[in-house]
């Protein structure tokens, strides 16, 4: 509701030539009473500034808010909460504070929680939860908003806890009538409304009491809350600062006994007081202008906000797409890794089969020597068994001679068994397994497979005494490398000229800080320059029946053990070098 009121002593012609200035004033009571109170102040301004026409615009919160938003109002007389909202939303400027008839402008208004005098005393706000409470409007600063802070600080949420709370509107004195008529238990009004109603004679002081009174010095009315600043005079953003300053100076000149002050129920105007208490109240009760402020921001920065929103949506879309592509590529990568893992396992299995097949080939090459080596213990066993039968026919029976013959037969049986076990160990297919092994023992086991051939060809094997060298390796694979190299050395010695020095294979072990160097030398026919360059190339061989895979396999096995194999140039024969890492010693 809006009511415009103005008086003018000028003729219509002169009135039309005057610039109109509208002063909006909030009303939480009967609007006609508000006009009667504030019109003398407006008349004072008209008399002081005859070149302007000041118009009083009296209205409720919704109406004044709309006029301020439209820019219709030039100045406003409002409470502290509305001023803060206008400052935030419309850049209003606070200019003056109203100086009440009694008291301090810093402490000018509070809330009075009123009950009938016959109601039991209420000691804490929690007792209000089952009471019928009435107030004029949620926007009433001097009534509902101030007491809400007390309730919130006492742990009461009005909307949730006060189920019988009602807002009945204006006029304010109707709330007192509802108490008298038992239509309500509690009425929330601004301070001094009760005293004014009693002074007017419409009610008696014995009918009411103010709950939880707070003592206020220099304040004539009863209050249930602390006091706050009340009326403020402010200009809107579009008003020229010089004009506003002139109007403010004229209001400051109003004295306590002047007609505007008497009818306006104030003793003058003063410079703006500190509004920290009002700000704290708004924060405590959760009263903010965020929703309205968001509307203002939207209207002012809508274009930029839409651009930012679009950019944000693009970023989100880009992020989602990247995540989608990452998931797809991760899945493909996992599939590739699984495929590579399966391929690696297949290659490992095939490699093991290949190594095993090569050991079978080597065993075939050693077959003649192994057959001769097995023939010796078998012939010896046969002779001893025949001898034992002959001794059994002699009388008297020589038990001691018979026992010695059987012992020697058993010994040759064990020798034959060892030969077969060494061959089976060498040929047997097994999964790769690296563990601590003694390199000296591996060399001895490899040489044992060629014992018969070495003895038959009268080849000298030189193994200088050296400390036991421990490496971490697969024993069978390292033995396979040594068997390949010994086989090659024996073949080279067979091709040697008979007039040359006696055939010889030499093993040299040199232990370094973290590795061991094994050299295998023979004084055979040696390697040509071309053979040395293609020594480890697959299918390159100098043997008539060879496949050319032996040295390539040796190279692959040694490199799989983090080692290295190469050929060194010597004056006579050939020298193959192998370097392998030593077994790491455990630290204490």
From TrEMBL:
<feature type="transmembrane region" description="Helical">
    <location>
        <begin position="304"/>
        <end position="326"/>
    </location>
</feature>
<dbReference type="InterPro" id="IPR005467">
    <property type="entry name" value="His_kinase_dom"/>
</dbReference>
<dbReference type="Pfam" id="PF12974">
    <property type="entry name" value="Phosphonate-bd"/>
</dbReference>
<keyword id="KW-0597">Phosphoprotein</keyword>
<dbReference type="InterPro" id="IPR004358">
    <property type="entry name" value="Sig_transdc_His_kin-like_C"/>
</dbReference>
<keyword id="KW-0808">Transferase</keyword>
<keyword id="KW-0418">Kinase</keyword>
<dbReference type="InterPro" id="IPR003661">
    <property type="entry name" value="HisK_dim/P_dom"/>
</dbReference>
<protein>
    <recommendedName>
        <fullName>histidine kinase</fullName>
        <ecNumber>2.7.13.3</ecNumber>
    </recommendedName>
</protein>
<feature type="domain" description="Histidine kinase">
    <location>
        <begin position="369"/>
        <end position="584"/>
    </location>
</feature>
<keyword id="KW-0472">Membrane</keyword>
<dbReference type="InterPro" id="IPR036890">
    <property type="entry name" value="HATPase_C_sf"/>
</dbReference>
<dbReference type="GO" id="GO:0000155">
    <property type="term" value="F:phosphorelay sensor kinase activity"/>
</dbReference>
<dbReference type="Pfam" id="PF02518">
    <property type="entry name" value="HATPase_c"/>
</dbReference>
<keyword id="KW-0812">Transmembrane</keyword>
<keyword id="KW-1133">Transmembrane helix</keyword>
<dbReference type="InterPro" id="IPR036097">
    <property type="entry name" value="HisK_dim/P_sf"/>
</dbReference>
<dbReference type="InterPro" id="IPR003594">
    <property type="entry name" value="HATPase_dom"/>
</dbReference>
């Amino acid at each position: 509701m809006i009511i415009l009121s103005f008086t003018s002593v000028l003729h219509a012609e002169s009135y039309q030539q005057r610039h109109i200035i509208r002063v909006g004033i909030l009303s939480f009571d009967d609007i006609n009473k508000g006009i009667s109170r504030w019109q003398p102040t407006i008349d004072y301004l008209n008399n002081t500034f005859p070149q302007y026409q000041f118009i009083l615009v009296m209205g409720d919160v919704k109406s004044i808010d709309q006029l301020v938003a439209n820019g219709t109002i030039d100045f406003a007389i409002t409470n502290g909460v509305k001023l803060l909202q206008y400052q935030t939303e419309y850049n209003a400027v606070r200019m003056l504070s109203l100086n009440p008839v009694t008291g301090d402008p810093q402490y000018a208004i509070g809330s009075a929680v009123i009950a009938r005098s016959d109601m039991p005393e209420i000691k804490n706000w929690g007792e209000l939860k089952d009471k019928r409470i009435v107030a004029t409007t949620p926007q009433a600063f001097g009534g509902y908003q101030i007491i809400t802070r007390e309730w919130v600080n006492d742990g009461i949420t009005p909307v949730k806890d006060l189920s019988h709370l009602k807002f009945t509107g204006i006029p304010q004195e109707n709330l007192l009538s509802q108490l008298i008529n038992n239509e309500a238990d509690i009425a929330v009004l601004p301070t001094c409304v009760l005293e004014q109603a009693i002074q007017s004679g419409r009610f008696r002081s014995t009918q009411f009491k103010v709950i939880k009174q707070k003592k206020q010095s220099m304040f004539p009315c009863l209050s249930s809350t602390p006091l706050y600043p009340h009326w403020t005079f402010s200009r809107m953003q579009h008003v020229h600062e010089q004009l506003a300053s002139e109007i403010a100076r004229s209001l400051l000149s109003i004295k306590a006994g002047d007609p505007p002050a008497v009818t306006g129920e104030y003793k003058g105007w003063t410079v703006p007081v500190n509004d920290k208490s009002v700000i704290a109240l708004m924060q405590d009760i959760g009263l903010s202008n965020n929703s309205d402020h968001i509307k203002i921001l939207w209207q002012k920065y809508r274009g930029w906000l839409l651009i930012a929103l679009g950019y944000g949506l693009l970023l989100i879309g880009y992020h989602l797409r990247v995540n989608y592509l990452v998931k797809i590529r991760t899945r493909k990568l996992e599939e590739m890794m699984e495929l590579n893992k399966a391929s690696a396992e297949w290659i490992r299995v095939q490699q093991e089969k290949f190594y095993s097949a090569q050991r079978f080939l080597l065993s075939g090459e050693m077959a003649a020597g192994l057959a001769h080596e097995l023939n010796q213990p078998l012939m010896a066993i046969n002779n001893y068994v025949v001898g034992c039968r002959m001794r059994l026919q002699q009388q008297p029976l020589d038990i001691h001679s018979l026992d010695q013959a059987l012992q020697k037969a058993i010994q040759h049986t064990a020798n034959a068994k060892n030969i077969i076990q060494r061959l089976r160990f060498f040929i047997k297919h097994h999964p790769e397994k690296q563990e601590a092994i003694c390199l000296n023992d591996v060399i001895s086991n490899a040489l044992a497979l060629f014992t018969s051939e070495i003895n038959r060809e009268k080849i000298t094997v030189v193994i200088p005494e050296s400390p036991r060298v421990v490496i971490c390796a697969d024993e069978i694979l390292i033995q396979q490398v040594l068997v390949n190299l010994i086989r090659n050395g024996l073949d080279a010695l067979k091709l040697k000229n008979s007039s040359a020095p006696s055939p010889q294979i030499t093993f040299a072990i040199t232990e370094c800080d973290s590795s061991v160097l094994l050299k295998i030398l023979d004084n055979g026919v040696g390697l040509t320059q071309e053979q040395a360059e293609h020594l480890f190339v697959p299918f390159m061989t100098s043997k008539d029946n060879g496949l050319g895979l032996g040295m390539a396999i040796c190279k692959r096995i040694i490199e799989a053990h983090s080692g290295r194999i190469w050929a060194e140039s010597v004056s006579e024969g050939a020298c193959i070098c192998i370097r392998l890492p030593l077994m790491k010693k455990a630290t204490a």
